[in-house]
Amino acid sequence: MAERSTAAVDVADNSGDKPLTAKAVQSTADGVAQNPERDTDSEEVQGSSTAAGTGNTAAPPELHSGHKLARRYRLEECVTRLDGFSSWRAVDEKLRRAVGVHILPSDHVRTRAVLAAARSAALLGDPRFVQVLDAVEENDLVYVVHEWLPDATELTALLAAGPLEPHDAYQMVSQIASAMAASHREGLAHLRLNPNAVLRTSTGQWRIRGLAVNAALRGIGSDTPQRTDTEAIGALLYAALTQRWPYPSDAYGLPGLPKDIGLIAPDQVRAGVHRGLSELAMRALANDGATASRHESACTTPEELVKAIGEMPRIRPPEPSFTAPPEYQRTTYQQGTYGRPTPPGATQVLQSPPPPLQSRTGKALKWAVSALLIAALGLGSWQLADALMDQGDKSGDTTNTKTTDDGDKGAPKPVSKPIAITGAQDFDPFGDGSEKPADVGKVYDGSPSTYWQTDFYKGATFGNLKPGLGVILDLGKVQQIGKVTVTFMGDTSVELRAAAGSAASQPTSFSAYTKVADGSGTSVNLKPGSSLKSRYLLVWLTKLPLTEDGNYRGRVADIKVTS
Fold it and tell me: Residue 179 burial by CB count (10 A; 0-12/13-18/19+): exposed, middle or buried?
């Protein structure tokens, strides 16, 4: 797909011979309650973008707290007022949830670009991005409504406390690069990807806000949007590793690099930086791709960056540390001297506790317990003798009628072993025939942080459009199936279906797969009721969970097959 950026539709003229220089701008009003957004368009930072349409800017609408849009969105707090538009924290009174709203007059020079960017971003429907919920032109106003994430924290705030741990930095760059690669495949660029636009939720997931819209609000465009976003991801990783901004000027609360030394690798800025992540940051940042220790090709697109991350050894989280509990100390209260000060010069004598159960009540309790034990022993002996007599009476009958089942009980049970999945394919026979095929390999990549997801629907049963959809697994050859474990994001109903063991190739019709098990939950163990041998398995989703954007969507994080 040819590169294009809907963030600057009809607003930017990026012709020119000299390299494009970016103005550092922090993301504006995209929904973190603890971190009202700021705008620093005057700071010089990274990028390859230009701002257009700064002239003929309409005056910002005169709005106030309590104003309602479409008799639904009640404005609460203005977090940004800049360049003819304003951004607000608001309340959706219909769904009773917080939202963010960008507002600008309908005759603003960037109105068409903002609406086009917002509608394109809304169609993407990727949960790794803060979702655009509505884009409306009404009377003299244009407003864009998006999610507000009160439980998320900006990367800016995280870095204020110090650099990220290597595993956290690896997760951030992996998730952000993967998300941006997906958006560029759909022709959408960000162009304002900075620490204020990256959020970490309370569950540890990283999300991006302001896709296309933030750049359109400021008329920012780029001749090379993929290169611009890739370099921005490199700057984010650099900052996460060093707590420094990889440009001469300070930005986002981070000090810049010394102006006289140029760009140096993160592991030369700060001791203890992970070597592989340091080289990855340089490959994304430096146009010639040169690093401090090796000469790798530069990563000029998010897709190339994702590939480079995949070639790295996976960075594991740090082992949890446990501290031993303090030694038990007897207190003076336990020693029987609480409230009795020791006379000066006298040696405190510790009185030993009295023998247990020496009182009249204690002796009675001991006799009662002894009587119960004697009764229990007598009853057990009688039952044992009775059982032995019955066994003697029946020994003649059982000698010659031993069945093969008794022999089976003594035989060792087969050991369950993992079965490798050699391929997977999305399966939507009752729809358009395809459901996110580019991500289907994530169901068996072994990483719980990645997932394959369905399109979104207006009901748990696929909006009554179809009975279900799923993923076909190829095990390479006919295998004995013992159990299939499916991990979902959200409570999902699922069936396990299998093709006949004699199938010479992957069946393409739903009727060729027979239901062998079902279940529901977030981690579902599907065990066939009888012995099953097959090469092709179908994980068939029948009921989807409700997502945070108010729609229904299935997300499969991992599938494991064992014998």
Answer: buried
Map tokens 């400021």 to a residue. Answer: 218
- Residue of 353 and 494 predicted with greater confidence: 494
Distance CA 316, CA 275 (A): 15
pLDDT digits (tens, 9 = 90+) for 16-33: 333 322 333 333 333 343
Residues linked to residue 221 through DSSP beta bridges, in sequence order: 50
- Which tokens in the block code for residue 265? 């690798």
Please give the pLDDT value at position 340: 55
Q: Are 86 and 63 in contact (CB under 8 A)?
A: yes
pTM tops 0.85, yes or no: no
Q: Name which of 101-115, 256-270, 390-404 the model is least confident about.
A: 390-404
Contact 543, 491 (CB under 8 A): no
Provide the terminal-to-terminal Cα distance of the chain, rounded to the nearest Å. Answer: 42
Q: How far apart are CA 539 and CA 513, in angstroms?
A: 10
User: How far is residue 554's CA from residue 473's CA, in Å, rounded to a whole number?
Assistant: 17
Number of other CB atoms surrounding residue 78 within 10 Å = 18
Q: Is 510 left (phi over 0), alpha (psi -120 to 50) or beta?
A: alpha
Integer Cα distance of 43 and 23 in angstroms:
6
The separation between CA 418 and the C-alpha centre of its own chain, rounded to angstroms, equals 26
Could you give the CA distance from residue 227 to residue 49 in angstroms, rounded to a whole number?
A: 10
